[in-house]
Design goal:
mainly alpha, 2 domains, three-stranded antiparallel sheet, A24 family peptidase
């Protein structure tokens, strides 16, 4: 026998939406704000409806894990924790750049849509099977996502270890050939002085190349010439937002050709006041370049014209572990509580 309350059935709509958003995040690192509007509207409707039932209706309970769970008595507590603790926590993660903007918006929707544990009866089993002390479903999804996201640095480390690439950034980066940079996401983990966590954003690099109307291949071939800011185009192209696959408008493209320069760090000519025109680029674009400074941009360009392979932090498209955390939460429940229970620390 299958029994699913209508509100909980509607909450399952979060899965296909997050599946699409996760795919989109992997492909482009861009998720439209409009993605979250239907789920946000659904969250408001369910919050108002269930709050009215919990406030005005008789107390009701659901059988879960052999217990009668009093839903109405705790409903406002779950909402208070989800909206008053989980949502501000997510905003704090965004403020300190642990989350991207799309990640924060996605989880704010989860905090509003999934404050309480849903219940799905299939035969004699009720899902999720693993509960948690507080019973706040959005908190379960957050902890699941964080635990699953922690596997990514471990995978990078193992991959670099097997390849024999030993470096201080082997937990957070991978080595990418220079010609894959135009189609790669993330941040450079190198400067002319060596590996660094403070390298240039690859979206900002793409913005600069499109603004200048030059390919990375041409930049490498003509580095000695194009380092001179007087070679900047009089009418630059639109920089776009740096997304992979976006095309700049116009035909003022610097063609490949010219003298091939020796690929060495010593090729940097620092006699220019604004090498590469980095400061002019950042001053003239009508929107930001993901916090990139002229120094970061110059150093990133110097690395890319000198090296055949570079360390790149691909970053974690957090909507991916968020979607995985949702799947696990709906099916299994709370990973952290299950782990602590298996260790004999907490029994839920």
């Amino acid at each position: 026998m299958v029994h699913i309350p209508i509100p909980d059935l509607l909450r399952l709509l979060v899965l296909p939406v997050f599946a699409w958003a996760a795919w989109r995040d992997v492909q482009t690192r861009r998720v439209s704000n409009a993605t979250w509007y239907p789920l946000a509207a659904l969250a408001v409707v369910l919050l108002l409806t269930e709050s009215w039932v919990a406030w005005s209706g008789p107390p009701f309970s659901r059988e879960w894990m052999g217990l009668q769970v009093a839903v109405s008595e705790w409903y406002f507590f779950y909402i208070a924790v989800s909206l008053g603790f989980v949502a501000p926590l997510v905003l704090a993660f965004w403020w300190f750049r642990a989350f991207g903007g799309a990640d924060a918006k996605a989880f704010l929707v989860i905090a509003a849509l999934l404050p309480t544990y849903p219940f799905y009866h299939f035969g004699g089993t009720v899902f999720p099977v693993q509960g948690t002390v507080l019973g706040v479903f959005s908190l379960t999804i957050l902890t699941n996502a964080v635990l699953l996201a922690a596997l990514y640095p471990l995978a990078l480390f193992v991959r670099n270890l097997i390849a024999g690439r030993f470096d201080s950034v082997m937990f957070v980066g991978r080595v990418v050939p220079w010609n894959e940079i135009p189609d790669s996401h993330g941040r450079l983990l190198e400067t002319p002085d060596g590996t660094s966590r403070n390298g240039a954003d690859l979206d900002a690099i793409r913005m600069y190349l499109r603004w200048r109307g030059v390919s990375l291949a041409a930049l490498r071939k003509r580095a000695s010439e194009l380092r001179d800011p007087t070679t900047l185009p009089a009418e630059p192209n639109p920089p776009t937002d740096g997304a992979v696959g976006a095309k700049s408008i116009g035909s003022k493209t610097v063609t490949d050709g010219g003298k091939v320069v020796e690929k060495s760090r010593e090729s940097n000519d620092s006699s220019y006041e604004d090498p590469w025109g980095a400061a002019r680029f950042l001053a003239e674009i009508d929107h930001g370049a993901y916090g990139t400074t002229p120094t970061q941009l110059r150093e990133g360009l110097e690395v890319l014209v000198a090296e055949d392979e570079v360390w790149v932090s691909p970053g974690i498209p957090f909507i991916v572990p968020m979607f995985a955390g949702l799947l696990v939460a709906f099916g299994y429940g709370d990973l952290l509580s299950g782990l602590l229970g298996a260790l004999g620390i907490v029994a839920i």
